[in-house]
Structure formats: structure tokens, C-alpha cells
Design a protein that fits this description.
alpha+beta; 103 residues
């Protein structure tokens, strides 16, 4: 069963600076994580006049939990985690776990 890391980025004070850092620095770092099988990014849009709960949602997928743990303990994983503090000052919520398809 696949294993995912979902990162929910809270709304930044400076949207342009956040987006620039994420797109130009952080995403390329994360894309180098060993064993990464999938990496998607969503920038939620407002619905019904409401502000979305998060500014950006990233979903990273590995074959299994062992591959995820190996990636996060690697040099690339440590660099990606350290970089979060460089641009996500408004905070992040992270969740990990096995994933599967319902349909």
C-alpha cells in the first residue's frame, strides 16, 4: 500500500514571496526525495466567497512507509524539512499515513 505525506501550508503574510520560494527552491528540493513516486501541489481557490482553509496543499507519495522513512532521513529529506522554516512562517500542518483508492 502506498504511503503519503500531506503538507497543508497556512496562509502566508507575503503570498508572492512564499510562492516564489516554494516554486523555485522548495519544490525542486522535495522532488529529489529518494523513492518519491508522486508529488502533486494544489493551490485551493475560494468557494462561495470564503477564504480556503490553506494556501497550498502538497501530496507526496512513496511505495510504502519504509521508503518514506528512508527518504525523510536522507540528506535530501533533511534539506527539504529544514527549508520549510525558510518560507513557511505562518505554519504548516503535516499528516502521514497509508493511502489507497476508494474507487
Amino acid at each position: 500500500m502506498a504511503f503519503q505525506l500531506i503538507v497543508l501550508y497556512h496562509h502566508p503574510e507575503d503570498v508572492a514571496a512564499f510562492d516564489r520560494h516554494y516554486d523555485e527552491i522548495h519544490a525542486p528540493l522535495a522532488a529529489k526525495l529518494p523513492g518519491l513516486r508522486g508529488y502533486t501541489v494544489q493551490r485551493p481557490v475560494a468557494g462561495g466567497g470564503q477564504r480556503p482553509a490553506y494556501h497550498l496543499v502538497a501530496v507526496l507519495t512513496w511505495d510504502d512507509e519504509q521508503a518514506f522513512l528512508a527518504a525523510m532521513s536522507s540528506e535530501e529529506g533533511q534539506a527539504a524539512v529544514a527549508d520549510v522554516g525558510e518560507f513557511a512562517g505562518s505554519g504548516v500542518t503535516m499528516t502521514t499515513g497509508p493511502s489507497g483508492s476508494v474507487l
